[in-house]
Structure formats: C-alpha cells, structure tokens
Amino acid sequence: MDHVTGVVVGVDIGNSTTEVCVARIASDGSIDFFGSALTPTTGVKGTIKNSKGVVEAVCRSLRDARIPLSEVEAVLVNEATPVISGLAMETITETIITESTMIGHDPRTPSGCGLGMGVTTRVDDLDEVAVDAAVVVVVPAGRDFEDTAASIRAAQARGVDVQAAILCSDDAVLVTNRLLHSIPVVDEVSRIEAVPVGMLAAVEVAAPGRNIRTLSNAYGLATLFDLDPDETRMVSPVARALTGNRSAVVVRTPAGDVTDRSIPAGSLELIGEKKRITIDVGTGADAIMEAVNRVAPLSDAIGESGTNAGGMIANVRHSMAELSNQSTDDVHIRDLLAVDTTIPQEVRGGLAGEVALENAVALAAMVRTKDSGMQQVADAIQRNLTDVGGENLRVIIGGVEAEMATRGALTTPGTDKPLVVLDLGGGSTDAALIEMSGDITATHMAGAGDLVTKLISSELGIDNIEVAEEIKRCPLAKAESFYHIRLEDGTVQFFTKPLPTNTFARVVTLSESGLEPIATRHSLDKIRDVRRSAKHRVFVVNALRSLATVSPNRDLRQVGFVVLLGGCALDFEIPDMIADALAPYGIVCGTGNVRGTEGPRNAVASGLIAGHVESFRSEALTVPEAANA
C-alpha cells in the first residue's frame, strides 16, 4: 500500500458547485479526512473551463487543512456528465391586434366600482357631447386631476351619461373623489394616445378583494359588443388575459383586424436501442414521457426542423459541440424530461403589456458526446495546479459520480445496503443502487434545480432568474404591517423595529439576508403553489423515475434506504416531498450526512478517495494471484 499513501484530494465537479475534500491515507489504508471546500463551478460541467474553479477549491481546502500543495500525491475528479436544459413551447396562439381592436388593463390604483359602457371621448370634447349620450372619457397625459374632475362634473350636470373614464396618470382615486357620483375609472394607461376615439368601449372595476366578471368572460364580451361566434373565438385570448384582474378596459373598432398565428411546437423523434417513436410535443408532457419509457434506454432524440422542439434540440447539440470541440454528429441526447407548464405570452396590440397564459412543455435534455471531455479537463487541472506549485501530483479521473456518491453516502450514520443515492443537483438527478454484494447500478436523469427555477420564472412571469431562484430556495411571507409578517404556513411573526418600507404589503422571501420583496402582483398562495408544483413535477417525478430504473426488476420495495445528496437536498421542502412519495414502498428516506459531519455535501468527493484506496487494495490482492497462476 506504500504507493497509495500520502495526501489525496477528491473533487466533485457539479453543475452549480465544485466540492473538494482533503484526506491523508495511512500505510494500512485507513483514511483521515482533514477538511473540505465549496466553490461555484466555472463554466459548464464537464468542460475545460471547470479547471479554474477546481484549482480555487483545491487550494482553499489545502489552506484550511494547513497542508502545502507540494505534499499532494493525487487529485481525483469525477466523470462529469454535462447537462443542458431548455424550453420548447407547445402550440401557442399569438393574438395580434391592429387598430387597437381589443385592449385590456390592470392598474394598481383603479377607482369606482361597476361596469360602464359608452363611446370613447376626449375629455376636452365633452362640451360637444349630446345630452343622454353614453361616453367613456379618455384623459391624456399631463392633464391635472382637478381639471379632469371639473370637466366630468360639468358634463354630468349637463345631462351627459359619463359611464367611465380612462386616465394616463395614476389619479383615478383623486378624480372619482371629486365627481357628483362615482364611475369606474382605470388609470396608468401609458399608451393613452393609442386608445381609439369614437369607438364603443367597456370599463369594469371590481370591488376591493374581488375580480372582474364580465370582461374576463368571452361570452360577456360577446354580449356587450354583439359578437358572432367567430368573433367571440377570436377575442377569447383577451378575456383570458384579463382573468384575475380587478379592473379592465376593452375597446372595439369595426376597422380593427384580429389575426391568429400558430407557432408550431413540432415533434420529437425518440431513438432507443431497439425502436423509434415520433411524438408531437403538443400532446403534452405525459405522452412524451410515456414515449421515452417505451424506447428506453434512450440513445438519441431529434427535433422536427423549423419548430420550437427542433430549435431547442439543435441549440443543445450546438452548445455542447462548441464546449467539447466535437462535431454536432457526435453529440447525443441520453435522457429527456418533459414537464407541462404555462408561459405568459404578451397579447400583441394591447396598451399595457397584457398577457395570456398559454400551455407549454418544458424539456430538459441530458447530453453525451462520442468521447468524454473529462480527460481534457483533467489535463487542464493538472497544468494549472503545476503552475501554482503542484509539480509532483497526478490528476486522475476517479469514476462516475453516482457510483462514487454511494461510497460517500454509506458514511451517513444509520444506513446500510441495499442503498440508493439520489444526487439532486442543478442540471440532473443522478441515482445509484449499491446492493448487498457491492454491485452498483447507476443512472442519470435530465432535469433538477435549474429546470425548477425556469418553471417558476416562466409561470410567474418573472424575468429575473435570480428572483426565481430566491423563490425556489426560501419560504414566503406577506408583510401585513410595518411590524409584523404572516408566514406562508399562516403563523405571524412580530418585530420590535419597523420593517423596510419597500416590503410593506408585499410578498417577500425569507432569505439569509433578510426580507426580500418580490416584484410581482401574484398572491402569496399563488407563488407558493407554483413553487411546490414545479418541485414536485421535477424532483418527485425524477426520483420515482430513477429509482424504478436502478431497482431490481423495477420494484421499489426491494430498496431499503434512500439517501438524498446534493445542493437541492438542503432545500427546505424537497426532501419531505420525496420522502412522502416513497413512504408507500416502506423505504427509509432522508437527507444524507456524509461522514457524520458534512450533511448532503461532499459525498462524491469523499467517495472518490474511498474508491481510490479500494482500487489499490483490489490490485494488491489480484496481482499475487496472477503471479502464482
């Protein structure tokens, strides 16, 4: 065992983080662990750019352990499989509105209550309106609210039937407070100049805490504007866009033109070892995953040219080919995860960024290349470590991360074989079963934390991916006053000092740095439901899928222990979700505690070191036998 003694470093290159542990191996093969380190992964997992983050993590861990780099005998890295995910939309109906045929709006400060309908009229033209004529007043930007209220009051006193008003500024409450009788007023219409004048319009404002009923109903629009069935079908996206709003405006111009344009989702050709299946993405995630299971194991997938699915698959191939310096013909899709979702699509022609939720299918794809790029990564790490003083060390590809993770997971107190490791990462869910005999079966499933973040971002219409990540990681609360918040579980927390003003009446995340307001109008319950649903559709589905793949005869009841590892195993609700899903099978499931000290982190890095020692033990046993033979 002399040739395996000394200091070794295990390195786990993940999608999001790079984990390192340092150990000294004694002459008898015992391992003494000294410390660990964690850094963000640089570049896409499995590419040369990883070397920068690896070197940083190795040097940091050695500093903490007070061991010079010159004493390191070997650096062991995992066989990292790159994973790239993307969104492929199902058939989307994009409503393009010209001549402002229909518009909808949902400002924060409407006023009045009820439904008003009349001909759109500029506030400056009210003096010319006939008595008893029903009008909707259009107020341009820069108009003082006192002047606006005075003009409407004068028209009402003269007998003009002022049904409602549309304002550019946020003066709705100030205007209605100065009228003879209340009317529904919608403000904050930034493109007020685009509102057609002389056309029939409807304005609806619901009472506080309620939503509009008529303008969000396609048949309500048909009744108000006397639409035929074809016209009703054409304007139904506008009604959907207004669903859940407290206020809305709809204007109809006979000269307007509404056209529908279908954006095809396309089809996927799934290529297995024994059969091929072509499936339309528009059939939904369940049908796609059923097809993936029928062709399993998946060898490759091809998207229909000129469609969303084809573009997504082509982009994945092209990106991986560039990163690995290989031909796109050598890049293959090894796994797909399809998830049903919704995406806010802007209603073209609206005046205030109106959106309609459209069905979509999110696809996460796992990529493999003809030749592994890990040797290039290992060579780059060795060059960079040599430059900073590691002249005598070797960088060795120690093994597949799922297999190494089982060795690390078995150091969790209370575990035993047969054991399954679920490594919940950023891009993939990896599973490995170690049986009583020591045999290991591993699988890699596309889709994990990154896909959950994308689902939250798309379904809540949040453009900032960092905010979506914060929603995924943190519990929610509603700041109900300057001194208390109501948590998502219904409990109340009080504060002795006033909360920041930007959190008042807002949904916030309870992050490590404090209360972070979320820039969205969605309620706390809506955000929580989207977050939990996204986690369930990705992590719970992938957990069951991967366990069925590695379990003997696909029977989950033959699995004794499941240990959750990876960054997502630290999530405040994912472990409980998976444990609940596995409870009917009698499986002991929980978050790992590697070496009894590291929690769900460092399993692969620790396993690489343990596997390194075992490989030399095996060689020591087999070489003498071969000599005797």
Spatial strand arrangement across the major sheet: 10-9-8-7-11-12
Helix share, percent: 25-40%
Write down how many β-strands occur, each being a DSSP E stretch of 2 or more residues: 29
The dominant shape is elongated
Helix count equals 14
Strand percentage lies at 25-35%
The CATH class of one domain is identified as Alpha Beta
Radius of gyration: 31 Å
- Please report the distance between the alpha carbons of the first and last residues: 22 Å
Helix-strand category: alpha+beta
- Kindly state the mean pLDDT as a whole number? 84
Stretches where pLDDT falls below 50 for ≥5 residues?
A: 89-101, 256-261, 621-629
CATH homologous superfamily of one domain, by name?
Swiveling domain of dehydratase reactivase alpha subunit
The CATH topology of one domain comes to Glucose Oxidase, domain 1
